[in-house]
User: What shape does this take?
Amino acid sequence: EAQVTQNPRYLITVTGKKLTVTCSQNMNHEYMSWYRQDPGLGLRQIYYSMNVEVTDKGDVPEGYKVSRKEKRNFPLILESPSPNQTSLYFCASSFTVGDTGELFFGEGSRLTVL
Amino acid sequence: GDSVTQMEGPVTLSEEAFLTINCTYTATGYPSLFWYVQYPGEGLQLLLKATKADDKGSNKGFEATYRKETTSFHLEKGSVQVSDSAVYFCALRSPLNTGNQFYFGTGTSLTVIP
Assistant: This one.
């Protein structure tokens, strides 16, 4: 089954404790992206990647890191989480060049930073 | 730059009422247009899409027509049901193959009451 898989789905952590949210897709998509969703603010893009080893900042990259060492994986790293990073996070993927297709989303990871 | 503007919510309707959620866009060239739906506690899933002017996307009784002359992609449904209660996002995919490609509106929350 074609899907985008995120882990963990739920996480409660404390300020300053490094964490990684994994994202994996099995559709051979070049494009991958991370969003955060907060009440009243819609979806805001954190980082995106056009292909392996190619990443770029979205609208709200501060406090986050990403890497794209393999095509299927695009982990989101919070080196020193803070309470303002409490949010619902979505990973998404799509084909890229020359394609008009949609973005496929994971089920979301709800993160709480105390 | 490219952007999407959609109707502010929340929207509350009675069952069997007519629904319209407005969406307009700004883009270079001719983007692909999408409506996504997010049911409570779930991720975003594609509802419908249109990839060129005058195309009509449809699914589950929802429709939207790609209007190039008014740069719009309004979502409509003739008779809403309680199960349609969700958040709806309008999105575009830029036809350019460099940089970020997807842009989302802020989402419109719909509640349908029996």
